Amino acid sequence: MHAPSTQQLPPLDRRAEGPVTVYLNPLYPGEVDFEEILRLPSILEGLKGRSSRQPGRVSSWDWTPDWHDGPGLVVRQYVHGGSLGGIAGSLFLGTGRMRRELAVSAYAYGHQVPTSAPVAVRTEKACGPLVTAYFVSQRIPRAQDLLAFLTERGAEQALCVDRNMRLAAAIAAAVAAMHDAGIVHADLNLKNLLVRNAFDEPEVFIIDFDRAALAGRLSLRQRMANLVRLDRSVMKWEASRRAVSLKDRLRVVRCYLQSYPAWRAQWGQIARDYGSRHLRHFLSRERSESKH
User: Fold this and answer.
1) What fold does the segment set 144-282 form as a domain?
2) Any idea where the domains of the chain sit in the sequence?
3) Rounded to whole angstroms, how far apart are CA atoms 239 and 57?
4) 271 FRET partner, CA 20 to 30 A, in 51, 57, 138, 203?
5) What is the pTM of this model?
6) pLDDT, mean over the chain
């Protein structure tokens, strides 16, 4: 996937002190204490964190500094996932990836994509071109990721038809807003969708624009490919497989297409194509797992 075009992204404010460089979102409306961002690692030592991308490794914290007038902040440390996580850990080559995520996040927030307000990125030189980095964003109060929601609530409550229809519509609206802004999410999955008021009037927020791309006017194929990625994540975890039916998954696609009359008329063909893509992925995954 191509990196976002820097010509379309907002310029970042940059401040440096010694080996530490802080990149600030110039569009963030609140106050930011540069000195506290500088000493962020020592502040995090006194906070209770949780794992994010690398299981068993604390890399995300809730932070409510005195200077922040709002619901608080979320700090995420950049760590490698998968097999690379055990080798490189939190070391990255250069700061380009972090700066792009902050810029794309600011762009998304400024273009009415439902997401958290990005605040800053803190990078620190470790050895040569290698750096460690933290991403700071505003916390979305009373929200939890969709996988946690499905796991905690269980299939009985999560599968209420009326509630699921409202939730499907909220998911579809959030993804459509992101696509209408020209953004293709690199890792659209249940953990990167936050839901609030899931049982009443659900609100859905999209987070983690790491490696996301600005692609201008998105084609139907690009949009559906992103939705297929989300659908695959439903099948990845037992809790979501148990709680979400095929009808529920197709309902998200149908709600998504309701905003686009030209594509809405092609619903039947799109649904067949969507199902075929997922079936091909499922069969290839089954064959791969059977070999091990």
Assistant:
1) Transferase(Phosphotransferase); domain 1 (1.10.510)
2) 13-138, 144-282
3) 22
4) 203
5) 0.88
6) 87
